[in-house]
Specification:
alpha/beta, Helicase, Ruva Protein, domain 3, Dna Topoisomerase Vi A Subunit, Chain: A, domain 2, 2 domains, two-stranded antiparallel ribbon, 7 strands, elongated
């Protein structure tokens, strides 16, 4: 792809680094921005900068927030005894969209994947165990993707929580094996949460 401007070429190169964005799509984005008023482009630029400077992890659940505690952890209407363990913020959004879950979350920041160099120490597992030992949490719902990596992470957490006085459950198998939560329809996901089963039962079904 030949460019008439080095600045356009460099900008297209940066946009094409975004997930799912090729060079042609990146060029459309750049040409679109060139047609916009400078105020609109500056607003977008400011918002992108604020994403890096103003957002942080919730000190409780590791969700993304602008405050020390996210709105979910701060809400008096949420069930403080129920914690749903998810991979990332996209899963929080997917579950919230069902309107069926009223507890709290714990965002791991990924799942165990040796092929990608991600081990337990790279994830927010230590803080989860600490929450489980607080005496407030009564049930932990394992809501990770139904993949080999998700199952491995579930089992590792289960072993870490052995001896802790807390119930451990997993989503009902309305979520198909190999699916990510973010791609599961809201009705199916909502039913999977409401009809969750004890984690040990899921272990027996695999043996």
């Amino acid at each position: 792809m030949n460019f008439s401007s080095k600045l356009i070429e460099d900008t297209v190169g940066e946009f094409s680094r975004l997930p799912g964005v090729g060079k042609r799509t990146a060029l459309r984005y750049v040409l679109y921005l060139l047609q916009k008023d400078i105020s609109d482009v500056q607003k977008l630029s400011d918002l992108i900068s604020r994403l890096k400077t103003e957002l942080r992890q919730c000190e409780v659940c590791h969700n993304i927030t602008e405050e020390k505690k996210c709105d979910i952890c701060s809400s008096a209407k949420r069930d403080q005894s129920l914690v749903c363990v998810v991979e990332d913020i996209r899963d929080v959004m997917a579950i919230e969209n069902t309107g069926q879950y009223k507890g709290l979350y714990h965002v791991l920041g990924g799942i165990i994947s040796p092929m990608d160099g991600i081990g337990p120490s790279e994830l927010n597992i230590t803080s989860l165990v600490k929450r489980a030992n607080s005496g407030v949490v009564k049930e932990i719902i394992m809501a990770l993707s139904t993949t080999m990596e998700g199952d491995t992470t579930n089992f590792f957490i289960y072993k870490q929580l052995s001896g802790v006085d807390v119930g451990i459950s997993t989503l009902a198998r309305g979520v198909s094996i190999g699916d990510d939560l973010q791609y599961t329809d809201e009705v199916t996901l909502g039913r999977s949460i409401l009809n969750r089963t004890p984690y040990e039962q899921s272990l027996r079904s695999k043996s």
